[in-house]
Amino acid sequence: MVKNIYSPLSGALAQERVLEIISNNMANMNTTAFKEDRVTFSLLEAEPEKAYQPPFPQANFKQNIEDVYPLHGNEMAYVGIADVTRDVSQGPVIQTGNPTDVMIKGQGMFAVQTPEGIRYTRDGSLTLNTDGVLVTKSGNPVLGERGNVFVRGESFEINHRGEVYQDNQLVDRLLIYRFDDDKALERVGLNQFHYGGEAAGRTRVEHPAVLQGSLEGSNVNPIRNLTSMIMAHRSYEAYQKALQNFDKMMDKSSNTIGDLR
Questions:
Q1: Which of 35-49, 112-126, 181-195 has the highest mean pLDDT?
Q2: What is the reported pTM?
Q3: Which residues contact 233 (CB under 8 A, 6 or more apart)?
Q4: What percentage of the chain exceeds 70 in pLDDT?
Q5: Domain range for residue 229?
Q6: Residue 51 in 3-state DSSP?
């Protein structure tokens, strides 16, 4: 009976994690270039041959507790989170006409200089600071081949290769990178990512496809996420009821059946 309660408990914890991820997706439906996360489950199969240490101290009487209730291995199957994957599919094109809005079509991320080091983002909703530097909404400079990208006013052009021109003169070229392993990109807030993989896994995109005056919308599918949220919520309620039933049964076995009269 004690072990049986862990099966619905594992399912409830898994659904709780699903609800957290879906809630984050729904909250970023209108976030520029946001990529939704998806959860896959894994069946943690029984391992009765393994010998785990009992989770409680030995009884203070002569009979060994292992002879009364052996806790060797795991005789039941549980549910666990196998993986949380990021959907890197292209979001919709949103035309703004703003010259400081830049969108990447296909693979690639802008390099951004932050106080914590270089971060990466697909959010091209840029602006100009007082020094004429192209910066993100959080004020961090977007990097070009020459470092910070300086322009005078908003009368500049960015072609499809990411080259920045002003008065028909090449000012700089935006640094755009692609990554072999998307799992090495960790969300760090402000719609930015930290790359923690090998240096060889990060390569420069030599022939990017850049659109000036447009932004990439979020690729979150609201209908699918809302449906998944309802299913996860109903599953969580079912697991919760199962836990309550197990709790009632243990209460009766301890206080009613075991009551000495």
A1: 112-126
A2: 0.77
A3: 15, 19
A4: 83
A5: 6-88+221-257
A6: coil
- What whole-number distance in Å separates Cα of residue 162 and Cα of residue 22? 34
Total number of domains in the chain:
2
pLDDT of residue 220: 96
DSSP of 121-165, one letter per residue?
E---B-EE-TTSBEE-TTSPBBEETTEE-B-STT--EE-TT-EEE
At 149, phi and psi to the nearest 5?
Answer: -95, 115
Same domain, 210 and 111: yes
* Alpha-helix runs per DSSP H in 28-139: 65-68
In a domain, 22, yes or no: yes
Pairwise CA distance, residues 49 & 72, whole Å: 7
Rounded Cα gap, residues 245 and 93, in angstroms: 51
Q: Is the dihedral of CA 103, 105, 106, 111 positive or negative?
A: negative
Instruction: Please check whether residue 37 is in contact with residue 228, taking contact to mean a CB–CB distance below 8 angstroms.
Output: no
**CA 200 to each of CA 46, 177, 192, 197, 203: distance values in angstroms, whole numbers, following the listed order:** 40, 12, 21, 8, 7
